[in-house]
Amino acid sequence: MNTTAADRGREARRRLLEAAAELIAERGWAAVSTRMLAERAGVAPGVVHYHFSSVQALLTEAALAVMHDLIEQAGAGMERAHTPGEALGLMIDFLTAYDGRDPVSLLFAETYLAAGRDEDLRRSLGEVVTDFRRALAGRLAEHQVPSPDATAAVLAAAIDGIMLHRALGPGPDATDLTAVLRRLVAPTEPGPPAKEQGDTP
Amino acid sequence: MNTTAADRGREARRRLLEAAAELIAERGWAAVSTRMLAERAGVAPGVVHYHFSSVQALLTEAALAVMHDLIEQAGAGMERAHTPGEALGLMIDFLTAYDGRDPVSLLFAETYLAAGRDEDLRRSLGEVVTDFRRALAGRLAEHQVPSPDATAAVLAAAIDGIMLHRALGPGPDATDLTAVLRRLVAPTEPGPPAKEQGDTP
Amino acid sequence: MNTTAADRGREARRRLLEAAAELIAERGWAAVSTRMLAERAGVAPGVVHYHFSSVQALLTEAALAVMHDLIEQAGAGMERAHTPGEALGLMIDFLTAYDGRDPVSLLFAETYLAAGRDEDLRRSLGEVVTDFRRALAGRLAEHQVPSPDATAAVLAAAIDGIMLHRALGPGPDATDLTAVLRRLVAPTEPGPPAKEQGDTP
Amino acid sequence: MNTTAADRGREARRRLLEAAAELIAERGWAAVSTRMLAERAGVAPGVVHYHFSSVQALLTEAALAVMHDLIEQAGAGMERAHTPGEALGLMIDFLTAYDGRDPVSLLFAETYLAAGRDEDLRRSLGEVVTDFRRALAGRLAEHQVPSPDATAAVLAAAIDGIMLHRALGPGPDATDLTAVLRRLVAPTEPGPPAKEQGDTP
DNA sequence: CATGAATGAGATTTCATTCAT
DNA sequence: GATGAATGAAATCTCATTCAT
User: What terms describe the molecular function in GO for this protein (chains A, B, C, D) (predicted)?
Assistant: First the structure.
């Protein structure tokens, strides 16, 4: 049962993608070099360009793979949620797991910025984010949260923004943040009825 | 009344800072090079290192200057606000002005990420963000918004997150987002009393 | 039977070491540049840093190789000497061959000084010198020269010092110097016995 | 009693020479730069080229001044010596004071090597060394040391060589070295008369 | 399928020196 | 007499990529 050449090739490719995801977070998108990738993956430098047309292409593929996995995982979590509060709880758990300086958060942020300078990446990333927002909005709508689309957008943005800010130093803890975020998904708006759509006083 | 050598020096320094702020947004923090800076500022390459100890130092100084100005401007706006809604309106105006792909938004995002890899920058940037959050929280507290600190943190994070997301493509428009964000600062929480502090469901 | 890529690599590396040894002597340790090395070795500039981690590393390896060879050669000569005088004669021959302004002498001197500013080099060079002194001391001890260690140290130092001085201009000729140096290794100490203290045998 | 402009000029010149002597030892002849000199001397960069025609000229003047002082001091010491042994003792004291890694020793060595690449410096330095050897030889001759010229040359060379070697690490201590060096100046040559040939008087 | 030597451009930074003030 | 801004060359080193093997 010996490994074929093709097996080794696949393995090398896989390790390169892994290395790319790590290095984007560690060094920043623009600072990842062919040699770094090769060394981290344990392959010769030439292998990088054998498997990928360019370093950019490798980074893009690696980043999208990670983000896709994560979104899918988040989406699956939401499927199981019975109330908006529960769904929100799941998102808060993400906040607890990803503190803004962990590899995944950094990969996200780096990819956001890189997308601003790479058309293909922007399109792909846009799809990922849109998918997530749509799934979240659907969930919110089911539970009568008003303005589900805008709410989902704000929630998703707040999550990412909180990650960014946390990277800079300690802020309010997750418990307090949760309480505030919950206001966004309160199912009904009592008292002086701030009727949802479109006004600036 | 002719220009002295010192005048020319100051002018060159100023132009370099200006060029740095532009280029961070256009090319990304790590991709800004000495030559690009010199060319954009209209000075000889050697001048960059005459005025600044390193390219990093120049980028850092330029980015912090821009962010400081912006925060100050935002703070001044809030001083004039009479209600949380009004203050929020001002922030929304920012969202309208800065659409996530404009130079200022990109400078913000780039600086956030660069801060993750530069201790000095992280500290300085942390101060700027903290100052802003504090000012905002003060405003909210005056108007009986519950949990003013956490609310301010979420609001600030949401603003930055929305900018990031908008860079990827169109989302809900500013009007809708405003309405949702307003929930965060509703002065009282009637009905089923979601008592503010410290709970995870 | 054509040359492989590996062969060419080895050859390029070898030529760089050769060029480094020449240039240290010609221009001085601190004045040897990447470009000079590449040009002299007949390779592209980038090749220097492909084969060596830094110019310093290349210079160090080159210098130590030359010195190691020379010491070994000197040691082998001493193996064949039957009396201290004969051994001394061999060393004098070195003095005749290396007049203080030849590449080898200059390489020695440059390396001594560079060692003062590079920890690794200092350690390596110290070992080379110690080895030589030890070999010389052993030879002296076999022939009943008193204080063989200190004598060896003085002899080795005198040789190097003479080289340095000769670089400045003509001094006494080798024959005269030999006669004086011979006093150091006279097997017995007649007259008022300057009793030697504290030698480690 | 205020300082005139001329006074300040002289003071700046003096401080630059002082700084040059220090920096040659610390960084090596070829690594001393205009900016380093200006900073160490506490003057503006332009002042260096105002007082000296080039950095090389400044270094040369500074090095020769230090060496001249030292030789003069050593010569004065020898004037007071009554026997070769006493004179030798003085030289040994130098060995104790200058351990091969102190500023003065390093300045000497750096200057020796720089002299190999600068005609003017070589000539000037040659004179300094020759003067010293001549003074030493005169002293030895007065005390019937045979071959006084060659002996002086060997002694001077051994001193410098010992300094160089000591910079690399510990060797025999000064006491042991003294005992060995003393053999060189033993007033008579007993036993098999190694008849000294060809000394230049 | 993989290698690793090579390339030439370009990165940051430091340099000695000049010159207008 | 002194200044300090500016210059343009050159320093070291890293880069993505190519290609012969």
Answer: DNA-binding transcription factor activity; transcription cis-regulatory region binding
pLDDT in tens, C83-120: 777 777 777 777 777 777 788 888 988 888 888 888 88
With CB atoms and an 8 Å threshold, state whether C157 touches D153: no
Give the 3-state secondary structure of C31-96.
Answer: HCCHHHHHHHHCCCHHHHHHHCCCHHHHHHHHHHHHHHHHHHHHHHHHHHCCCHHHHHHHHHHHHH
Q: Average pLDDT for consecutive 10-residue bins of chain B (201 residues)? A: 69 92 92 92 92 94 92 80 76 75 84 85 87 85 87 87 78 83 69 39 33
The packing angle between helices A84-97 and A148-166, to 10°, is: 20
The domains located in chain C, with CATH, are: 56-184 (1.10.357.10)
* Best residue of C71, C165, C184 to probe chain D, by most D CBs closer than 10 Å: C165
Chain E bases near protein CB atoms (7 A cut-off): 1-21
B117 beta carbon to strand F: under 7 Å:
no
Contact assignment for A183 to B179 by CB distance below 8 Å: no
CA angle C97, C102, C103 (to 5 degrees): 120
- Extract the residue ranges of chain C whose pLDDT is less than 50: 1, 188-201
Residue of D nearest to C27 (CA): D117
Whether pLDDT at A26 is above 50: yes
A183 closest CB neighbour out of B161, B169, B183: B183
The reported pTM is 0.81
Cβ-Cβ pairs closer than 8 A, A with B, add up to 197
